[in-house]
Amino acid sequence: MSEPSGSGAVLDGAPVDLLPQQVADRLAARAGADHLTQVRAAGFKERSANAWFRGTALGREVFVKLYARNDRAATERLVAPAVGPGHSTRLLDGGTAAGLGAYAVFGWEDLHPLRHTADSAATAGRLLAAVHDTVPPPDIVPPTGTASTPQPASCEEQLETQWEALAGQAPDLYALVRDRPETPAKGAPNELAREADRRATGAPRVLLHGDYSLRNVARGAGGREVVFDFERAALGPFETDLQRLWDRELAALPAGRAAFTAAYRGERGTDPGPPDPVLLDFARLSCALSTLTAARRTDDPAFEAEGLAILKALR
After folding, report:
1. pLDDT tens, 17-75?
2. What is the pLDDT of residues 220-251, one digit of tens each?
3. Is 32 left (phi over 0), alpha (psi -120 to 50) or beta?
4. 296-305 contacts: CB < 8 A, separation 24 or more?
5. What is the pTM of this model?
């Protein structure tokens, strides 16, 4: 399967608010749905660059996702069936709607967020293990970059890209954290990136979720645990998928990191051992920089404080 990369037609990459009903109607006609109604995020932080719809199609209730980027739609439509309905929501169909962009149709499930407990951390560990043990589908689309903005080939290149983004969005924060020897104390940022590149060369590559957090796991009917949102999936060391989870969620739970790690290692087909500290620290640094950049772009002081807290924890 191949899709053109880059932006979708009606979404511009900004968090989606209420769309005109005619967008839902045109999407329903293309997807073969009887009727679609937009599903709006519960709050600002839950908003996405993609648009979500609920309705009926193919003789059942469905969830339809309209993507801001066609390349990410193609990635999700490759990865979701590979992970399979045993651990994820069922992909039913997908395509491209003229003037709207790429979409995917999933079977609707009443999903409930996991409570922020050590048990939920263990659930997240088991689900991530299932993703990492999935055989990667061929021709997976790179989750970041397009033909005009290539995916960074190394940790050093990724870090430089993130520095540039932070400098453009928040020059004061850039000046605060760039090249400070105490950020993190375990080595200057560029030294950390170089060592991460060295270790990544010899680390096993797994299918990465690419945006893993407690927001992307849930519990459905009968207690079924599922993981979803694979549009940023890629290949790499397993530590990369801990970047959002480690400081922003697991650290806030009593024994959260321990519960997650034990469940993850126990569920993997082959125990990978504990996270490599250098690869984990680089993932955390990457998360901190992307958090700071996004916080300034959306004028979210609380989110900015989260990014600064990650940097402080790395010292």
Report:
1. 899 999 999 999 999 999 999 999 877 777 899 999 999 987 899 999 999 999 999 99
2. 888 899 999 999 999 999 999 999 999 999 99
3. left
4. 296/169, 296/170, 296/173, 297/169, 298/15, 300/45, 303/45, 304/173
5. 0.90
In one letter, which amino acid is 264? Y
